[in-house]
Amino acid sequence: MGRLDSKIDSLEDNKRRTWGGRLEFIITCVGCAVGLGSVWRFPYLCYRNGGGAFLIPYCVSSFLVGLPLFFMELCFGQFASLGPITIWKISPLFKGIGYGMMMISLFIGLYYNVIIAYIFHYLFASMTANLPWSACGNTWNTDACLVVGEGTQTNATNFTSRTTLLNTTDTTEVIATSPSEEYFYRNVLEMTDGIENSGGLKWDLSLCLLLAWLIVFLVLIKGIKSLGKAVYFTAIFPHVILAILLVRGVLLEGSAEGIKYYLTPDFTRLLDSKVWSDAVVQNFYSLSVSFGGLIAMSSYNKFHNNCFRDALICSLMNCGTSVYAGLVIFSVLGYMAHISGKDVADVASQGPGLAFIVYPEAISQMPLPTLWAILFFSMMLLLGFSAQFSMAETVLSSIMDEYPHILRVSKWRETIMRGVVCGVCFLLGLPMCARGGHYLLDLMDHSVGGFPLLFVSLFECIVLQWVYGWSRFSEDVKIMLGKKPGIYFRVTWCCLSPLLMLAVIVFKFIQLKPYVYHGYTFPVWAQVLGWLIQLTPVALIPAWILRRYCYDGGLKALKRAGSPQADWGPARAEDRAGTIYDADSKAKTLHDNGTSNPAFDQ
């Protein structure tokens, strides 16, 4: 039997690839963390929650939750060299946590690639001398369309009086829309009046989505072997473009006012609990904690890799890039406020509104707008893909690690599986490419973030540090890194991080209310759909426990399933040698005499 186990271990070692170098892993983690949210979510949250003062709760939550959980997941994945589902042989009763992580990555990956399809649409539309969102008078424009800074009509057939967006004494209430806003909603999306009216598929967005999934498949066709090479470009080049856009932004008139609005601290906001809640959730978003991606990516590391150094580098780079991207965005928003005569607060936005309306509007007012549009949307595309590649690989590696005897038998079978999964994800994303699909996309974005991330991370932390136990987990880290984690990690992993997550969950429950998108209240069935999206990753945890209870024989079976499997430990024989996981050790003899796992007979 031992010979057979060794043969299987050897086979799995040969089948499971590793990173080509330490730098590939770090860049991939940075790319996974520094995604589109760093450009369109963090700057707005920083402005809305007290400007520079928001950095205080953001850094505190990063210190108490972000960095500890980031390091914990890297240790977890690197020690066992397994994906986010299979790795729960550490405590098979809670394997539902792994399924929950995979579902979170799957849900986010589905709508994330639709956003990338939007970006492709804009990138292709930018390759023209006159940007299509720079002026009114197009077939998709309405009578309310008004170019910033112009008070004259731009459509020859329209004789409706318009007021200028510049300073004016006219108190007549006129609802004017910018060309970029009408281009996004009336041409790119052709948005319907509600989620109940799908309006049919948009062929251009559907083709862009197909292109996005095709690129994901081609980049991940060989797993991390091809991913590790692609991230050198997708994760590094956006920072070069960010630097170019920052230089251009600070040279614009009014940019200083935008940066002032972004960074000026309002310390009274620190008394608002919602500010702290936003800071914690943003840390989960930006660091990709509980997505399963950190476990999947670190599982391809060498066993003795210094993952604490990697966690520290990635956390600092993520925080720095978020603040840096805010300077880029708000320098341009200051320019927009200057030429429109508005306050920065009136032009600031978040999410797609910032990326596809406000910033493109500013670009259209600059000299050489085509150049800046191509640079901006190229940067957005690369940021999107660098995160999407990691999420897609998380889902793919989770499936392959669960069924290696089927999917890792040959390279062709693995390639076909990757193609099939990408194809199915493309089909699942098509409803969001319908004319009413943006409502579904926004509903998914609102639903996946928040409760699923917090609950999954809370359960993960409790199981690893209380069920499996701090002493066991710290001994595993010592085997891998040469020393146990310090008191800082013991306090945060065992107490502070779970308590803070629980506090945020309670606060978010108290603040619950029906979700409204730009004044549109979702119908009841859509609200129910949103709750199903939120509850699915969380419900998988008790559902798996119930499955073990029903199929394995009641409470005694649950108790056994809460303990690590006999084969838990480092994946490679050379890493187990000389440790409590060594098959030839005295502990192994004790195990053969009847104990569940020799490492844990304490």
Automatic annotation (TrEMBL):
Disulfide bonds: C136-C145
Topology relative to the membrane: Multi-pass membrane protein
Subcellular compartments: Membrane
Keywords: Disulfide bond, Glycoprotein, Membrane, Metal-binding, Sodium, Symport, Transmembrane, Transmembrane helix, Transport
InterPro entries tied to this protein: Na/ntran_symport (IPR000175), SNS_sf (IPR037272)
Transport found in the keyword field: yes
Gene Ontology CC annotations of this record: plasma membrane
Family: Belongs to the sodium:neurotransmitter symporter (SNF) (TC 2.A.22) family.
Residues given in the record as Na(+) binding sites: G31, A33, V34, S286, N318, L383
Coiled-coil intervals, chain numbering: none
Gene Ontology molecular function: any one: metal ion binding
Major place of residence: membrane
GO biological process, one term: amino acid import across plasma membrane
Pfam families linked to this entry: SNF
Membrane-spanning residues: 21-42, 54-76, 97-124, 203-221, 230-251, 280-300, 312-337, 371-396, 416-437, 449-468, 488-510, 522-546
SUPFAM superfamilies: SNF-like (SSF161070)
Record's protein name: Transporter
Species the sequence originates in: Lingula anatina (Brachiopod)
PANTHER family: SODIUM-DEPENDENT NUTRIENT AMINO ACID TRANSPORTER 1-RELATED, SODIUM/CHLORIDE DEPENDENT TRANSPORTER
Top-level lineage group: Eukaryota
